[in-house]
């Protein structure tokens, strides 16, 4: 073995603010740590307690007013929760409307937040001198991209956007891969218009700091492609084999499933009940939608099956029927192995974790790459897709008043 392969690396992870991205990075970091490399996370303080509990070093990108870490029970997404909660009705509309509205709403917030962190990234990178930086973001700081440190782009969302191939439908709309190219062209044009403001803001940011603007003007390339290594995350069965592979420095992984010490026992109230055991998890956004969570749990109350529910931030705003048990958050990687089926929003982390544990899925997408995951699962015959706001009881239960098991 060469000295280079034996060298222990310091790897700095810089994921965007979101548990899905952080969990994917942690899964990758777990593999590096097993090989005796040093993994450090640069995250907002609200995410630090969970990473500390997993034994990781953390560099803070934010602190509380008192300059301390938040308590472990603090809501790690409170600001985003409040923002999303004011705009929940958008999810009931068409996929393109959801994209147009949320890109508009998030553009200013995301760029402003990232720009505020530029001095922190400069200081952290200069002090730690990492060997590699791993980013899992849709937009990245130029002080990472042009730091002189080799960097890896981990794209932990559904990969359709990364292919950006005319033989495939445009991303974030949940369109089938067998469709009319003329319709795809029209939809791509709509997406280009929706993302135009984002490009302007990112390029203004980069140029104001003395860095070159983005090379591409496509909505698919708000983030520069790494000249070193790019990784996308999807099970082989869901990969888009209809087209040729991406460039040589792109690599696919089935997923990055975290190693945790979490445990979970089936609650006593469900343990002796008959029926299959089902996990219902609608993600950070879906878990804030009271009307949606009430609708789904009311319908599923008529089922003969048992449900473990990730109730989300509004956990205290609604009660669960007798065939259900739930909490605000769940140790998902400990729960999935115990259930027979997963009802999910279709976030890529949940999809890859469910695949890892070999469980069937029924996907109820809300926005963005969730639509693409739902469509891909259905057209490959590996899952089902339904509209969470408009599906009927008959569709949800199937012809025999039960979930369609595959």
UniProtKB/TrEMBL annotation:
Molecular function in Gene Ontology? UDP-glycosyltransferase activity
InterPro entries listed in its UniProt record:
UDP-glycosyltransferase, UDP_glucos_trans
Taxonomy, superkingdom? Eukaryota
Please name the Pfam families in this protein's record: UDPGT (PF00201)
Record keywords = Glycosyltransferase, Transferase
Task: Please name the Gene3D superfamilies in this protein's record.
Answer: Glycogen Phosphorylase B
What family does this chain come from, according to its entry? Belongs to the UDP-glycosyltransferase family.
- Output this protein's name: UDP-glycosyltransferase
Q: Which organism is it from?
A: Medioppia subpectinata
Q: What taxonomic lineage is listed for the species of origin? A: Eukaryota, Metazoa, Ecdysozoa, Arthropoda, Chelicerata
């Amino acid at each position: 073995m060469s000295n280079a392969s034996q060298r222990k690396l310091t790897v700095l992870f810089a994921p965007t603010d979101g548990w899905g991205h952080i969990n994917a990075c942690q899964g990758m970091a777990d593999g590096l740590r097993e090989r005796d490399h040093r993994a450090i996370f640069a995250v907002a303080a609200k995410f630090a307690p969970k990473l500390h509990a997993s034994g990781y070093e953390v560099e803070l990108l934010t602190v509380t007013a008192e300059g301390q870490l938040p308590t472990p029970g603090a809501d790690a997404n409170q600001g985003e929760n409040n923002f999303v909660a004011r705009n929940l009705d958008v999810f009931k509309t068409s996929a393109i409307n959801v994209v147009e509205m949320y890109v508009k709403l998030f553009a200013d917030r995301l760029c402003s937040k990232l720009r505020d962190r530029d001095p922190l990234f400069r200081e952290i990178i200069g002090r730690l001198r990492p060997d590699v930086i791993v980013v899992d973001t849709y937009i990245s700081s130029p002080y990472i991209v042009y730091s002189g440190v080799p960097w890896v782009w981990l794209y932990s969302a559904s990969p359709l956007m990364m292919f950006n191939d005319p033989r495939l439908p445009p991303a974030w709309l949940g369109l089938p891969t067998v469709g009319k190219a003329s319709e795809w062209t029209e939809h791509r044009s709509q997406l280009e218009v929706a993302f135009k403001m984002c490009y302007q803001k990112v390029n203004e940011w980069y140029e104001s700091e003395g860095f070159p603007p983005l090379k591409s003007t496509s909505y698919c390339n708000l983030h520069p492609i790494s000249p070193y290594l790019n990784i996308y995350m999807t099970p082989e069965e869901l990969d888009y084999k209809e087209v040729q592979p991406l460039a040589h420095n792109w690599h696919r992984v089935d997923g990055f499933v975290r190693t945790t010490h979490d445990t979970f026992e089936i609650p006593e109230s469900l343990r002796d009940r008959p029926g299959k055991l089902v996990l219902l998890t609608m993600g950070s956004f879906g878990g804030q939608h009271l009307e949606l969570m009430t609708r789904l749990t009311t319908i599923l109350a008529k089922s003969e099956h048992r449900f473990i529910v990730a109730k989300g931030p509004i956990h205290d705003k609604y009660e669960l029927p007798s065939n259900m048990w739930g909490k605000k958050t769940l140790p998902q990687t400990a729960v999935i192995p115990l259930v027979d089926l997963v009802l999910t929003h279709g976030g890529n982390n949940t999809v890859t974790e469910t695949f890892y544990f070999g469980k069937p899925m029924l996907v109820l997408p809300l926005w963005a790459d969730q639509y693409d995951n739902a469509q891909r699962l259905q057209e490959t015959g590996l899952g089902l897709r339904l509209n969470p706001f408009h599906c009927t009881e008959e569709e949800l239960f199937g012809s025999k008043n039960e979930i369609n098991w595959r």
